[in-house]
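Handout, section B. The chain below has 228 residues.
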Amino acid sequence: MRRIHVICEGLTEETFVNELLAPQFKYHNLYLIPSQIGQPGKKGGDVSYRKLSRDIRERLLGDGRSHCTTFFDYYGLPSDFPGKSEAAGYADPRAKAEKLCSTLKLALQNDIGENALRRFVPYVQMYEFEGLLFSDPSHFATGIEMPSLIDGFTEIRNQFPTPEHINDDSHTAPSKRLVALFPKQAPYEKPTLGTLAALEIGLPKIRQECPLFDDWLTQLENLQPLSA
């Protein structure tokens, strides 16, 4: 079985990989190995280039018979992250993601080497993990047992061509929109509610609604076995 290390931004992404992606990828003879970015005891959240470069190096050079990919949000990346400032000049989410990923690979070539980078598949979630949950507003709300939020979720989703277009402004990013809708006595708890919602929506629906996310999974599914 082919191995793919998935470097995740935090617990939510790691749980999503374990609960939704890993079971499906077994049908493609692929074994996903998710882990949060950073050293033990100081994991998650801070996706600095220094941490990410170190983690990718460890996966690719420490396990020469595996591939490696990333699963972190565009929103919240530090301004000095490779490609972030250049990507900001593009309005289209796909153009932003492609610019960021291509620039990241160029930076990593200098640190890790071109040969090892052939086993690396960069991916950045546009714009946040929560954007995926707007793939199905109804199932999102029922999955977290808050059907009263269906109309609010639907109104947000209908403003954009795809969930991946929900923007990254500090007040209107997907997570900020959720916080604004949730009652104060029951705030949005990302790891738990995010996973429950994703399980209720289902991976096929998310892939259907989020083309960049679907392209990433398709690329992983089509990875060729590594030669001995």
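Note. The longest strand covers residues 66-73. Compare this with the example in section A.
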